Amino acid sequence: MKTSVQKKITDTFQKLKETLSLFPESDLNKVPYEGSWTAGQVAQHIIMADSGFPELFARKTEKTNRKPDENVKDIDALFLNFDLKMDAPVFLIPEKKEYNKNDLNLKLLKIESELLECAEKYDLTLISPDFQLPGFDKFTLYEWINFALVHTQRHTNQLNKIFKSLNNL
Hints:
Four Helix Bundle (Hemerythrin (Met), subunit A); 6 helices; globular
């Protein structure tokens, strides 16, 4: 399980880095269309949402009597439905400011490294009882990593749309 999770982490962040690299610094903070975030804001949102897993995993955990990936199908169905418009919770809305691509990349690299370390260090079959997404049961550590990855994939798709819009593709 650990090896396949680590491969998913590496693959997901590789695609994100490739997509973010498409943006010249001059386009990173351009609003592509009304109501959209900039590419810099999207990257910052990913950073905000995908940070803190080492702290979460180090907290109290509990054994479960269900499959450790039981919620994965529902998480994937929700977050990989690109036709569904979602609003970020207020605490995950990125600031409207000028973002620097190198700073964003360094923070994303740190998150990737932390997720890889968590996948190696922790028993991913355990439940984290201290935090819960609305509409879901308490997640196993495996499901939390999966959430981070599908959330990142969703916003990598959004970055591709922003790039196409800015470049009239």
